[in-house]
Amino acid sequence: MKKVIKTIFILSSFLVFSVLNYEIYQKEYTKAKGEIVFIEISSTISSSFMQGKYMKLIYAVVRNQEFQEKKIVEGMRGYVVIGTDQNKVAIFKRFYDGKKLSNDEKLLRFYLKSDKKAYIIPDSFMFQEGHEKFYTQAQYGVFKFDAKGNYILLGLADANFQMIQSS
């Protein structure tokens, strides 16, 4: 019986580690091979006991008129379709309706909170305590999108589209 439990534990551990490693591989692949898109932000620096200092990110694509006119339901989640301009800055196109995207379109996940505001995921950016002075000039979130529609937030950029380095 102990041998069976030990075997189940080993197999379960292997499965968990395999899934975690695959997720890491996907993120690293997106980071290495993905297409850069800048999403305009307005931000506020906040702090919490557990997380320390961080930036709350409010993206310009959710300040679009269509978002303001959409019936807001707390807890609503979905996707918006974005395109990019000549500087690779995201432009709101429409709410995703399940139809096939064109080659220049990408999806962003959003959700609505009880404050009746829409938030793009991720909605915060963590940084080291004492480094907030570097990030106060942030104008854009720098994202990378892969061909499958996965995306990650790489960092923040200034008005000249330069990644902000805290060192």
UniProtKB/TrEMBL annotation:
It comes from Holospora obtusa F1. It comes from the Bacteria. This is Membrane-anchored protein.
